[in-house]
Hints:
Layout: E1 2-6, E2 9-10, E3 19-20, E4 22-26, E5 29-34, E6 43-46, E7 51-54, E8 56-58, H1 66-69, H2 74-77, E9 81-86, H3 120-129, E10 135-138, E11 140-141, H4 142-149, H5 159-175, E12 179-183, H6 187-190, H7 194-200, H8 203-207, E13 210-214, H9 222-236, E14 240-242, H10 256-267, E15 272-276, E16 281-285, H11 288-293, E17 296-302, H12 313-320, H13 324-331, E18 334-339, H14 343-351, E19 355-357, H15 371-386, H16 392-399, H17 401-406, E20 423-426, E21 447-452, E22 455-458
Parallel strand pairs: 1-6, 2-7, 8-9, 9-10, 11-12, 12-13, 13-14, 14-15, 15-19
Antiparallel strand pairs: 1-4, 2-3, 4-5, 7-20, 16-18, 17-18, 20-21, 21-22
Bound molecules: zinc ion.
Zinc ion binds near residues 89, 214, 243 and 244.
Amino acid sequence: MSFVISGATLVDGTGQERFQADLAIADGVITEIGKFDIGEAMHVKRADGLMLTPGFIDSHTHDDGYLLAYPDMKPKVSQGITTVVTGNCGISLAPALSDATLPQPLDLLGPKELFRFKTFASWLAQLRATPATVNVVPLVGHTTLRVACMSDTGRAATRAETEAMQQLLEEALEAGAFGMSTGTFYPPAAHAPTREIVEVGAPMKARGGLYATHLRDEADHIVPAMEEALEIGRELESLVVFSHHKLAGSKNHGRSSETLKIIDEAHKTQPVCIDCHPYPATSTMLRPDRVRIAKRTMVTWSKGYPQGAGRDFADIQAELGLDIQGTIDYLAPAGAIYFLMNESDVSRIMSHRLTMVGSDGLPFDSHPHPRQWGTFTRVLRAMVREQNEMTFEQAIHKMTGLPAENYRLKNRGLLRPGYCADLVLLDAERVADRATFEDPIQVSQGICDVWVNGVHVWNGTDVTAMRPGQVLSRASFDRTN
Ligand SMILES: [Zn+2]
């Protein structure tokens, strides 16, 4: 199948200035860019007045199970995303060895039935057998390995448990994982000392792979937590991805100048990068430490009190007449949105040259954080068009060329002959997120067409029936060949 997109302005993903050109696609690959003879038999898509960019790469997702349950991936393709990085914050769907009840935060990835893959390879095989609309860059989570290998996660791993986790990581890398993530902020990994993570991660030294970290602390003790992550990166000789970089709690607001300086300094001697989303609120499981430092907490889902989803925690607490812990116990297990960041920190972090855009969305929440549906279009509306915090070209680079370089995606992330045809056609004047904290399940506006591997998956109002997504290859990470 070959076609030409004609008349669009191209923003190629490098951060360089836009230019006018036609672009030809054949068999899922960009074949030509510029002015060329369009053969008569070729299908021509007119795109005058629109911008053509590489497909967006969502650098930080929890879509591991959603890809299988809802392969049309509407929350993602509707905002121009063509590739998702899964397995962040220490939690991946596979390998799931235990039949015990799912500890939080693993349940953020979806219902227990989805945790049916005993090996990383079997999950990837399922994704290949029943592909989604989007491509996948899979990471394996250290918390998932702990839950699989340890009888009690409330302590450091024993030698035998560490070796068992190492073995599972080795298998996951062999199967195609791009690296390992950790989430020592969360109970099942909070007792893992630095040494354990370095030892479990040892197979990455031989095989390559990146290290994505949800820091142990994003509040008062963020600096030692960052130093720990940098040390792990050096030990494993891995790129460190600072996940959803933020400063939580009002007494830490403004400290992004300090943390970005640490990252800049580290960047001189070791590979580092950042992902972040453009909202002043975060979302995860319901926990007292977050409720206490947040200006406002909204419940996103609750097993104990399902009607609480979408309501303010403070209102539920007043209604129940309980203290914070009592209210949490009543709602548990549950998730929440916490308004605990400062807008200027968010802007400063997003504008940093090493920052990629990552939604961190939680796809199964009944009243999710709007980032699942609106992250990329919000950057283009609010940060580019309304607030002028970066150019359109810089924003597109953070969504395409930069993550493709960090995750070493072969022939992706740029508009170049020979590159895969992951493409977005959008109206730069109209593009906007519509998802809000009150009404979070809303498609964006101004995303006119999306192609994944040359196949049309979004027509401006809805998904098509096509599922061309691929599990991308980690080949470029391999140190062995
Ligand atoms: Zn996280």
